[in-house]
Structures are given as structure tokens and as C-alpha cells.
Amino acid sequence: MATQLVEGGDFDLLSTIYDIIKSVEKEQQDNAQKQKDSQEAGQKVLELQRKLDHAREVVKKLPGIELSKDEQLLQIDLLRRQLTLKRDLLNKYRSITSFDREAQSEFQIHQH
């Protein structure tokens, strides 16, 4: 299973939460300013909800999400074994190739 990058992932939730808390903590004497801050906080809450909904949708699309933890662990183990086998084969082919090159060079030297 190939690693896939999640596109369009705006998961900066902390800054939005911070903005909400900051706007709620403001102590304003002016009623107009209080109303404005309240509206801004409401907009930030809606923005946070939108980001959370988007994050849920992105998580649902992740490959392997339908597998249980045990199935995922088995798949990781299988993939690690395949990786080890492929690395071993690559090392084997590299050593064979260098041996063939050396033999071919020696053969050419002896012919001249």
C-alpha cells in the first residue's frame, strides 16, 4: 500500500480555538463592541466546525481505515517482510552485477 499525501488538509485547529477563547475572554464596556466580538466568536466557532467536518471526511478517505488494528498490524508486518526480501534481492543483484563486471574486465584484459 503506497503512502498517500492528503490534499487540502487544513488541520490548524489550535489557532482557531485560540481565537475563539481570545474573543470570549475580551471584556468590553461598550455594548456594540461586545456584540461585534460575540459575532466574531460565532464565526470562529463555525469555522472550527467546518475544519472538524473536513478533517473527518479526510480521515474517512485514508487507505486502510476500514481495517481493524490487528489487521493493520498484520499488514505492516507483511509489508516489512516484503521490504526486507526486496532489499536482500537488491543487494544480491548488486553483488552479482559487480562480479560480472569484474569478470568481464579480466576476460577482456586476458584477450589483449
Automatic annotation (TrEMBL):
<keyword id="KW-0539">Nucleus</keyword>
<keyword id="KW-0805">Transcription regulation</keyword>
<dbReference type="GO" id="GO:0003712">
    <property type="term" value="F:transcription coregulator activity"/>
</dbReference>
<keyword id="KW-0010">Activator</keyword>
<comment type="function">
    <text>Component of the Mediator complex, a coactivator involved in the regulated transcription of nearly all RNA polymerase II-dependent genes. Mediator functions as a bridge to convey information from gene-specific regulatory proteins to the basal RNA polymerase II transcription machinery. Mediator is recruited to promoters by direct interactions with regulatory proteins and serves as a scaffold for the assembly of a functional preinitiation complex with RNA polymerase II and the general transcription factors.</text>
</comment>
<comment type="subunit">
    <text>Component of the Mediator complex.</text>
</comment>
<dbReference type="InterPro" id="IPR011425">
    <property type="entry name" value="Med9"/>
</dbReference>
<comment type="similarity">
    <text>Belongs to the Mediator complex subunit 9 family.</text>
</comment>
<dbReference type="GO" id="GO:0006357">
    <property type="term" value="P:regulation of transcription by RNA polymerase II"/>
</dbReference>
<keyword id="KW-0804">Transcription</keyword>
<protein>
    <recommendedName>
        <fullName>Mediator of RNA polymerase II transcription subunit 9</fullName>
    </recommendedName>
</protein>
<dbReference type="GO" id="GO:0016592">
    <property type="term" value="C:mediator complex"/>
</dbReference>
<dbReference type="Pfam" id="PF07544">
    <property type="entry name" value="Med9"/>
</dbReference>
<dbReference type="InterPro" id="IPR039242">
    <property type="entry name" value="MED9_metazoa"/>
</dbReference>
